[in-house]
Amino acid sequence: MNVFCLPQTPPPTQFKHWRTQSRLLLAASVLMLSACGGGGGGSTVQSTATAVTPVVTPTCIPSATVTCIGSSGGTVTSAPTTTTSFSLLTGTGITASQCYAAGSNVLTSCVSAVAIALNDKQDGMVGRDVTAPDNADGKLGFSYSTVPNPAGGNFAVTECVKDNITGLIWEGKTASGLRAGSVTYTNYDNTAAAQFFNGTTHANPTQAQIDAATNAIGYKNAVNASALCGYTDWRLPTADELQSLVDYSVPYPGPTIDSTWFPNTPGRGYWSMTPVVGVAPLAWIVYF
Predict the structure, then answer these.
(1) By three-state DSSP, how is residue 117 classified?
(2) By the 8 A CB rule, do 262 and 250 touch?
(3) pTM score > 0.90 for this model?
(4) d(Cα 198, Cα 232) in Å, to the nearest integer?
């Protein structure tokens, strides 16, 4: 679902993690992902942000098959089957003390009578954060692990991290150098689309601009060339994949991500590969 972030500071909690940003006007950071390896609106314009560039192959994303049986009046008249794939749900980070009661915006205990009376299915009452709250591998329902290094031991979390729920392997951020979390990027990907603002008008980016190390695609190519953690299938994540990392328990200004497993990851906007339907210059960004 497309939800636009209102141009307020701090942004309203219910909208602050989703936003579209013009490829023409925004430089963002990049955090990349490799799934096969491990199994705004208004008049506000931001000049810099952070973008994440994960790399994953769709066939490697965990999925499940659902069989639907058609019936009428209690009698099965036919048995057509359909299948669908869906990504597995991670935790959200909401704790057992972050629920609401009627008429109040003050957080309260999720087991309190007033919270249950408002809604007995609040985020802090259900899901992995309640059923699998193991903080040893990530906060509450999140579950991360280091990636084995064929040369021995495991890769550092500043190189790559595996999400045990989705099976995706995410790029880690370093304090300096090529993959520093402080670096921001443009996100041009089409020489036939007006994605570049040249100071006067919207223009098509050149192939050189797309291939530059300061652009998301050029950066992705550089990381693949380095075979980070032994993988060469790194790519930008989808907006949904990025959203799976958001820890909603962390207040503004973040970063709303597990900083133990993802150090050097600023609370900024991260590029996704998900375009805004029907608007070529725009791509979705998820904010941490």
Answers:
(1) helix
(2) no
(3) no
(4) 33
Within-domain flag for 106? no
**What six digits make up the tokens of 196?**
């570049």
Residue 129 lies in a domain: no
Supply 139's token pair. Answer: 């906060």
Residue 183 structure tokens: 């670096």
Does 101 fall in a domain? no
**φ/ψ bin of 167: left (φ > 0), alpha (ψ from -120 to 50), beta (otherwise):** left
Q: What is the mean pLDDT of residues 10-31?
A: 44
CB 134 within 8 A of CB 61: no
Residue 175 DSSP one-character state: S
**Total of domains in the chain:** 1
85-89, 189-193, 260-264: which has the minimum mean pLDDT? 85-89
45, 50, 54, 58 alpha-carbon torsion, rounded to 10° = -20
Whether residue 123 lies inside any domain: the answer is no
- Which residue, among 88, 136, 139, 134, has the nearest Cα to 258 in the 3D structure? 139
